[in-house]
Amino acid sequence: MAKLVDQHDHHYCTADVISAVEFSQSGEFLATGDKGGRVVIFQREPQGEYNVYSTFQSHEPEFDYLKSLEIEEKINKIRWLPQLNSAHFLLTTNDKTIKLWKVSERDKRPEGYNLKDEEGRMKDISKITSLQVSPVLRPMDLLVEASLRRVFANAHAYHINSISINSDCETYLSADDLRINLWNLDITDRSFNIVDLKPENMEELSEVITVSEFHPHHCHLLAFSSSTGTTRLCDMRSRALCDQHAKLFEEAVDPANRSFFSEIVSSVSDVKFSHSGRYLLTRDYLSAKVWDLNMENKPVETYQVHDYLRSKLCTLYESDCIFDKFECAWNGTDSVIMTGAYNNFFRMFDRASRRDVTLEASREVCKRRAVLRPRRVCVGRKKRDSDISVDSLDFRKKILHTAWHPTDNIIAIAASNNLYIFQDRHSHHAGHHLEQDRPPQLQDAPAQ
Amino acid sequence: MEYKVEAHRIMSISLGKIYNSRVQRGGIKLHKNLLVSLVLRSARQVYLSDYYSGVCLNTQHVEAKEWELMDSNQEKPLTPAPEESLSPSTDCNQNPEVPVVPEDPEVQHTSQAVEDSTDLHSVSSKHQAEEESSSEDSTTDVSLTSSPVTCESQCEAKGAEVSSSDCEADANPATVTEGNSQQPPKAHSCSNRKRTAEKTASNDSPVKRTKVTSSNSSEEEAEEMDTGNVSNLITIFGSSFSGLLTKESSEPEAETEDSDSGSGQICCDQMLKNLNPWSTAIVAF
Prior knowledge:
Chain A: GO terms for molecular function: protein phosphatase regulator activity. Chain A: It comes from Astyanax mexicanus. The complex is a heterodimer. Chain A is an all-beta fold. Chain A is built from two helices and 34 strands. Chain A has a single domain, classed as YVTN repeat-like/Quinoprotein amine dehydrogenase (Methylamine Dehydrogenase, Chain H), CATH 2.130.10.10. Chain A has helices at 262-266, 313-318; strands at 3-5, 11-13, 18-23, 29-34, 38-44, 50-57, 62-64, 69-71, 77-80, 88-93, 98-111, 136-152, 162-165, 171-175, 179-184, 187-196, 209-214, 221-226, 231-235, 247-249, 270-273, 279-283, 287-292, 301-304, 328-330, 336-340, 345-350, 356-360, 376-378, 387-389, 401-404, 410-415, 418-424, 442-445. By secondary structure, chain B is mainly α. At the A-B interface, strand 8 and helix 2 of A face helix 1, helix 2 and helix 9 of B.
């Protein structure tokens, strides 16, 4: 197993690298998946901190004998179902198989059987005078169990990149490079194909699906993005096979920026509907764009995440960094968007004020209860000591996975094998805006 | 000239990525390979873009020129017509306009190269100058010599894109018997697309025929090139990008592709022995 070294010379395995981060729909739980196929679930304590709640092995490496291919156990995506009862359900997926897990608590155990006494010794049968029909439940230490409830397998010939649960809470979609399938959560032996981009002749392949997501409110609408930089909105009511899009969101490429790598850079790496359902957030390699669902020809807002990399695309291509897929996130009120970058930086953009901030997630900077100070990347000479020059950015440290609590200002940042959880100190209610003179006060909570 | 060096470098890097993807854990990543092939195609277009500036598009003229060049023992691979309106970076890290330089650096390049080496495998190229190459395609078919024709017919029978290895297998024996041949046989990659091909003729002076090909702009792979060690790398890979895809989607062609890459490997080894300066690098690859 490959050993990696983080900035403190701590050795860690590639299996420990976090590959998925997702808050539950209420925000009480936070799930992370890693390259080793493990899932760790954190629960929010009454004081506001997140502590480990459950850990289980979700996927194991498999081997496809027909194609002589190894199937990685890396968790690509995690999605929580809305909570219906005391148990919690989540979907996890690797490249080929989706699994539904039930996480439940047990804090009582049955006792008082007819043949055994309380200490577990066999009773003297001649002394039994009455029968107990129902067992007595006695309290025990809390036990959290994760049990596998469904396995949705053998439906994808290509690598699964996303799963998304429908607002109807009965169906969900899974998307691979070329196809999107619709499943019923209770039925594992069949799924419906709703999008198929596979050309008759694979030589004519020109685009692949990168991410797909259901609309948060309209159960018939889904969006999927492609490697060509387009995002499509599909309506399942209009036809069974949604290859024809209802809307196509695409911005014309600026010819001045054309290079060998234009196509790679425009490939969309993440798509997220706003909580309101009115906007789409897309992330490509250099920017994040907010689209109004009613306007297809250009985004309403474009945020440059790290435009200073535009002159370094060749180097990033060589190092494979240009293929990194950054995720993006909305805050609870859709007023701020967040996405990751390199050097363990992540960025937040306030849509109303157009203010943005760059923050760093690293052990050196993030002591408990410390307030994060904004960072800046400079292209030329440093104006301040705290500036970082583009050439000294560490491209091995990338923040690909970020998540925002559904209502509160709590964010989870995955940096390699580390999970950082930051909370807004000033306000625990939704609707906090970044103010002009005060950078956001963030503190870390214990994690992992 | 700088941009050609950069383009060539990008092509090599891209091929390396495609090659490495075949042994990566988890199988071939379709998305990444698609993007890499797009970069490869762009780089290749830039690299070849100035070959045709100033060169007459008439095939016969081209052939006559080839004869002259061959007679003078100078290699000059002729590749399809210049690309239209291509403005990728000269320096791949910047984005200035690409000046179309009406020179043929390839001549300089090959004159320095070992005579046996380089320009073996012209083969497939993807070009968007369809209107320019369409006229040449018909005439070049006539000019093929026997063994390549055999190869080509075999390849065409295959229908969809075929790896160069098949053609190499046929061309190789012919080459081996050619005592005087200065160049190893050219590899064909035959497909439903028109292609560039170079091959040696029998007997005295090797003749290179350039088949100008065109391709759909929607196609995403450029397998063989007619320049130097980059084309050698492609030969070594054996199978095409669709071979990668067929493996992944486990279509029936997968078996064919497997055998192709196998025979391609053998042919590559045979050819490698003829290549002096590049052999070490490629074997290492």
